[in-house]
């Protein structure tokens, strides 16, 4: 592969448009650009998670593969009609999720985002993943988008939740449970 970016700025986007992978131009605020832009943001938040102390080798290996998948997913969204995310990618996430979740105790309460820096980064990545999923759904309502990107992001957000639980427990900080009893019964507003 040759140099992809010999010149970093082109000025072609100064009018508020950007080029898609098929050469067409769209507004930088288009649903398609929002979707693949949020997938890029998700990849960056996973990079932050991987840079945190306390990430296990198993989690590092899984998330490094996820980062490659997210480049593929972004490419699929950037090039209308492209297919890059496969059902096997989704199945792989499910297998990792099952393996990491199996030893965890069942949840009885909601968990507050936290539990150490790595776990907190995992929760941040999970919320960005959910936003990316919503943006892919919004795009699919008006343009042709295969179902695999949405399903991949749905499984990935679940995996990031489980990874956050694993990292919180491994860090010694533990999971912080939501204490819904801390308030008295709310009074009806009507």
From TrEMBL:
GO terms for biological process: cobalamin biosynthetic process. Gene3D superfamilies: Cobalamin adenosyltransferase-like. Residues 8-166 form the Cobalamin adenosyltransferase-like domain. The keyword Iron-sulfur does not apply. Residues 1-24 are annotated as: Disordered. It catalyses: 2 cob(II)alamin + reduced [electron-transfer flavoprotein] + 2 ATP = 2 adenosylcob(III)alamin + 2 triphosphate + oxidized [electron-transfer flavoprotein] + 3 H(+); 2 cob(II)yrinate a,c diamide + reduced [electron-transfer flavoprotein] + 2 ATP = 2 adenosylcob(III)yrinate a,c-diamide + 2 triphosphate + oxidized [electron-transfer flavoprotein] + 3 H(+). Keywords: ATP-binding, Cobalamin biosynthesis, Nucleotide-binding, Transferase. One of its GO terms (molecular function) is ATP binding. Pathway: Cofactor biosynthesis; adenosylcobalamin biosynthesis; adenosylcobalamin from cob(II)yrinate a,c-diamide: step 2/7. SUPFAM superfamilies: Cobalamin adenosyltransferase-like (SSF89028). Signal peptide: none annotated. Its EC number is 2.5.1.17. Homotrimer. Belongs to the Cob(I)alamin adenosyltransferase family. This is Corrinoid adenosyltransferase. It comes from Rhodanobacter spathiphylli B39.
């Amino acid at each position: 592969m040759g140099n992809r970016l010999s010149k970093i700025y082109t000025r072609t986007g100064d009018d508020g448009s950007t080029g898609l992978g098929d050469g067409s131009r769209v507004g930088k605020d288009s649903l398609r650009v929002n979707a693949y832009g949020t997938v890029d943001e998700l990849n960056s938040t996973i990079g932050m998670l991987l840079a945190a102390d306390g990430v296990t080798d198993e989690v590092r290996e899984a998330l490094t593969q996820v980062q490659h998948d997210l480049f593929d997913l972004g490419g699929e969204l950037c090039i209308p009609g492209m297919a890059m995310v496969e059902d096997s990618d989704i199945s792989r996430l499910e297998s990792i999720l099952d393996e990491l979740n199996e030893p965890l105790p069942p949840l009885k309460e909601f968990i507050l985002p936290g539990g150490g820096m790595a776990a907190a980064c995992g929760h941040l990545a999970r919320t960005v993943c959910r936003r990316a999923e919503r943006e892919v759904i919004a795009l699919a309502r008006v343009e042709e988008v295969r179902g695999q990107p949405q399903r991949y992001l749905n499984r990935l957000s679940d995996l990031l939740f489980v990874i956050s639980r694993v990292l919180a427990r491994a860090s010694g900080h533990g999971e912080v449970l939501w204490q819904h009893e801390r308030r008295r019964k709310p009074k009806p507003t009507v």
